[in-house]
Design brief:
- By secondary structure, the protein is mainly α.
- The chain is built from five helices and two strands; from the N terminus they run ααααββα.
- It has helices spanning about 35-40, 45-50, 60-65, 70-95, 125-130, and strands at about 105-110, 115-120.
- Strands 1-2 form a two-stranded antiparallel ribbon.
- Helix 3 packs antiparallel against helix 4.
Amino acid sequence: MRADGQKLDSKASPQVLWQAFPFPDNFNMQYFFTNFTLQLNYLPDSLKEKLPPTDSRLRPDQQALERGEMDFATEEKNRLEEKQRSLRKQREENPGSDFVPHYFVKTLDPDSKEEFFKYGGKRDYWTDRRNKDWDHLDDLF
């Protein structure tokens, strides 16, 4: 039975609705990532100059991992985690210094009554990007 209540035609030929792309060469050496996944961190120089320093594509541990520098990637990951712990501890010890998103505001969905973050915080990302004004962002890396 179809969604519209009609009977299915049992003699109709099946149709392919979706087909996965083949994996790239040496995918087993690239964490079994698909071509799409491999492109998520693509960072051309023309884009790099426009991004805030907090963009995850700029993470030194991630970049080292992509270059195959496993030991350095591990060291950087540990350094970043310690830096995050230190910042969190600082915020916990100083009331009123909680993190507040710059580009998003916490909102309540009227239907689900669940909180979510909606674009439209105290700053405009596109204005900051145009002006290359990133001084207000935390030093994450």
